[in-house]
Amino acid sequence: MSGSQFLRAVRDDDDPGSPQAGAGRVVVGTHLRRLRKERGLRLKDVVGQVDQVGSPPTLSRIETGATPLKTDTVLALARFYGVTDQVQLDALERLVSSSQAAQWWEEFRDAIPGWLERLISVEASAQEIRTYEVQYVPGLLQTPSYARALMQQAIPSISPTDEDQRQARLERAGKVRQRRRSLLHEPGAPDLFALMDEGVLARAVGGAAVMRGQLRELYSMEENEERIHIRVLPFSAGAQGLAPAPALTLLSFPADREEDIVYLEVPSGGSYLTDPERVQRYRLALTTLWSRATTRDETLALVQRYIDRLAG
Fold first, then answer.
1. What is the pLDDT of residues 120-148, one digit of tens each?
2. In which domain, by residue range, is 124 found?
3. Would you give the end-to-end CA distance of the chain in angstroms?
4. Which of 20, 50, 70, 280 has the highest CB neighbour number within 10 Å of its CB?
5. Region 144-154: what's the mean pLDDT?
6. Do 95 and 230 lie in a common domain?
């Protein structure tokens, strides 16, 4: 494997459960397992060759993300497997450090389903995020009021007596959404390329005032944020604007496209694709859709037009 090839975050056969391992541990463990297998080594072949690995079960726990990682151990294993590229070694070290830090979403586990926790942790490790939405403003760009209006529908009242519990769930879910959004403003934040269907702008989620505030936020982000790029697929695109999925996200990691993953969102959760050929099909679809979208100036003008429609 070339020195520039990086890390595959999750494989198609990874257990979507156990998100508590975090993206860093899962990514590093998967990568180490792949390095070992590429060299035709069994678990027992490594024991005794790397001082920090005392038994096959110990190495297995490292590879499955079932145990906290140590920087010295991970780097020693990588070097034993023949990794000499400093870029790759530095990337491994950063991921180990990330996996050791307490993550903000741990206190919201009761409000985050496992599939969403996995997505949040992978987003935090990405270098670039490209997303497409046909119905709603992408989650990373939603204002608190817009997000709450959506969640009102996602968390309906079961009975008049459960309203307090429902409101508590809405409050915690809202906090998760806003903390997730803060990722875009942190040092080293990923570049975000957000594409949405024009119908998203026309659908007044939460009423005129809420939607106007959301549209103003989109306008401001596109105009002022260097790492955030927003485009709209206009109605005029017709059949050429049809996407392969109603909501999809492509996450890229430094520094090889072989490590990209696609996240497909469905009403009951989400699924991940990492097979390079399947990922490539979605990457090409996103690239094609982006080429048919409005330009930056056209996007700002279109968003402003919808803001004006809601001003009355």
1. 667 777 789 999 999 999 988 999 899 88
2. 112-309
3. 60
4. 50
5. 81
6. no
Angle ∠(63,272,172) on CA atoms, nearest 5: 95
Angle among Cα 149, 121, 203 to the nearest 5 degrees reads 25
Q: What angle do CA 178, 137, 249 make, to 5 degrees?
A: 90
The pair of three-digit structure tokens given for residue 143, joined into one six-digit string: 């204002």
Going by their DSSP bridges, the two strands 128-133 and 191-197 should be labelled as parallel
Of 101, 121, 147, the domain-final residue: 101
Kindly report the pTM of this predicted structure: 0.68
Q: DSSP class of residue 131?
A: E
**Number of domains forming the structure of the chain:** 2
Residue 180 domain-assigned?
A: yes
Claim to verify: residue 210 and residue 174 sit in the same structural domain: yes
- DSSP 8-state class, residue 68: -
Q: Cβ distance 310 to 208 under 8 Å? A: yes
> Does residue 5 lie within any of the structural domains?
no
Backbone angles phi, psi at 82, to 5 degrees: 100, 10
Distance CA 39, CA 23 (A): 25
